[in-house]
Amino acid sequence: MPDASIHGHGGMQRGAKLLVALVLLGYPILIYLLHGRLNPAQLLAGLLALLGLRSLVAAWMLRRWVARQVVLGVVLLIAAGVVLLAFHGVRMHWLRFYPMLFDLAVAAIFFGSLLGDMPLVERFARAMRHDLPPEGVAYTRQVTWAWGVLMTLIGLISLGTALDGSLRWWSLFNGLIVYALIGLAFALEYALRCHLKRKWSRHERLA
User: Fold this and answer.
1) Which DSSP state fits 132?
2) CA–CA distance, 196 with 134 (Å, rounded to integer)
3) By the 8 A CB rule, do 33 and 175 touch?
4) How far from the centroid of its chain's Cα atoms is residue 41's Cα?
5) How far is CA 83 from CA 15, 86, 205, in A?
6) Distance between CA atoms of 80 and 85, rounded to whole angstroms?
7) Pick from 160, 168, 126: which is nearest to 35 by CA?
């Protein structure tokens, strides 16, 4: 019975995380669908509340930096309430900058990791394979650069859609096209990685 309760608790955690993540990822589409039904202040409050819930779920699941995550989550939830109650002058176009800020923040994380001892992609690679060859180390640095450039380009295009004024194109790009581009990038990188692994293995056998 304890094992069942543990597995059930873990399932609840994963389900909560997945639900919040899906809503955040699809938020541009939600804004498009709810435009005219909810005012901008309500939409902004909803976004802040979702970000706050994400922090609380992260604290619940990861058990790391719990105090920081809880404080951030509570602050965001309070901010959502303040916006809902007191800030009725929110403009719709303000909400359109959220995806761009997120994309550029991710790009900054990739580029920033290049200044440290280990690029971000190398950390992911070593989590799966500790004995990463020198060629693999160089490759992960190149992939980190590539992801940083890609996320920067996506952020700039997102900014263009935010300034363009078309809610439909903004929602389409930030809610669908972005994820198709990222999925394509993952697929291409995986194919290239498999090709390079075979090449490295042949070199090791010849050596």
Assistant:
1) -
2) 13
3) no
4) 24
5) 28, 5, 63
6) 9
7) 168
Q: Are 90 and 44 in contact (CB under 8 A)?
A: yes
**How many other β-carbons are positioned within 10 Å of the β-carbon of residue 199?**
11
- What is the Rg, in whole angstroms, of the alpha carbon atoms belonging to the chain? 21
47-78 CB burial, b ≥16 within 10 A, e <16: bbbbbbbbbbbbbbeeeeeeeebeebbeebbe
Distances (CA, A) of 52 to 71, 75, 109: 9, 7, 21
Reported as a single tens digit per residue, the pLDDT across 55-79 is: 887 777 766 667 777 888 888 888 8
DSSP strand E in the chain: where?
none
In sequence order, the 6+-apart residues with CB closer than 8 A to the CB of 99 are 28, 158, 162, 174, 178
Give yes or no for residue 141 having a pLDDT over 50. yes
Q: Is the pLDDT of residue 1 over 50?
A: no
Confirm if 139 and 193 have CB atoms less than 8 A apart: yes
| Angstrom distance (rounded) from CA 161 to CA 68 | 34
What pTM was computed for the model? Answer: 0.77
96-123 pLDDT, tens per residue? 898 999 899 999 999 999 998 889 888 8
